[in-house]
Design goal:
The chain is α+β, with helices and mostly antiparallel strands and 140 residues long. The chain is built from 3 helices and 3 strands, in the order βββααα. Helix content is 24%, strand content 14%. It is elongated. About 13% of the residues have low confidence.
């Protein structure tokens, strides 16, 4: 350990970026001012040790927690058909045996065909390719 003596308003340099200045001396207490770049953390030792202890505890994995997490995720996830070119699934209505693992029937999705060019233009549904396929305007 390097031991240095400093008086009030004197500074110690650590590397090129860290300055430690003796700001005040009162009895057995010394006040230090520390200038350091933001990427260098500066803590009192007791705070630093508490941070390390909390990080060690947080990093420990409890196998029971992992098992319960895996079980809960396994019960609530299901694969959805997101391929718009697969028309075999998109036009089929849900049946009673197609319930998901959580007990809810999937919603029926139907493709909307573009309106015939002979109909009134206000009743046309435009062929939208922005990911809104299968939706209908309000009131339909």
């Amino acid at each position: 350990m390097l031991v240095l003596s400093r008086q009030k308003d004197e500074t110690i340099m650590i590397g090129d970026d860290v300055e430690i200045t003796v700001v005040d001396i009162r009895g057995d207490k010394v006040r230090l001012g520390i200038k350091a770049p933001p990427h260098i953390p500066v803590h009192r030792k007791e705070v630093y040790e508490a941070i390390k202890r909390e990080n060690r505890e947080a990093a420990q994995v409890n196998p029971d927690d992992l098992k319960s997490l895996a079980n809960s995720r396994g019960n609530s996830t299901q694969r959805l058909n997101t391929d718009p070119s697969d028309s075999t699934q998109a036009n089929k209505p849900a049946t009673s045996d197609s319930k998901s693992k959580v007990g809810h029937e999937p919603k029926v999705r139907r493709r909307i065909k573009p309106a015939d060019s002979n109909t009134n233009s206000s009743n046309k549904i435009k062929n939208n390719t922005s990911g809104c396929e299968g939706t209908q305007p309000a009131g339909s």
